[in-house]
Amino acid sequence: MMLSRWQPFSPVWNQLHQLQDEMNRLVERWGTNGGQAGAGTYPAVNVWEDAEALHVEAELPGLNLKDLEIHVTGNNQLTIKGERKPNVPEKSVWHRQERGFGQFVRVLTLPFDIDSNKVEARFENGVLMLNLAKHPAAKPRKITVKAE
Q1: Tens digit of pLDDT for each residue in 18-36?
Q2: pLDDT digits (tens, 9 = 90+) for 74-93
Q3: Beta strand 45-49 with 77-84: parallel, antiparallel or unpaired?
Q4: Residues paired with residue 48 on neighbouring β-strands, in sequence order
Q5: 88-91 CB contacts, 8 Å cutoff, 24+ apart
Q6: Domains with residue ranges and CATH for the chain
Q7: For FRET with 126, which of 10, 28, 60, 105 sits at 20 to 30 Å CA-CA?
């Protein structure tokens, strides 16, 4: 017979952790400024997974590769950092400026650990494409059931 400690508040703590996770997802989705483009939401990203990897696409029009840094830390944190410099013609006057310029940092907490040694990055037509291989522990394993 296995003994376990009685924890009367365990379901409450589980619900609080679940609520915290949901709030983190909302804040991450909508950013700190109501979901409008700008600080905290640039560059716009798409993230999806398949059986082997997590895929990230980030829109970075007008960015030079020398002004871009990509870091994976803690096995589940992706940082995209860079600077988009303005193209200011000499002896001219701005009439409208809707495209943002300057330094940016976008940090994404990934849904599972990745293998930081197996990250591939491509930059085509202003879109950064990352393939982040899943860590072996994050891949599903098929378990064989034995009958007796």
Answers
A1: 888 888 777 765 554 444 4
A2: 888 999 999 988 877 788 88
A3: unpaired
A4: 55
A5: none
A6: 41-86+100-138 (2.60.40.790)
A7: 28
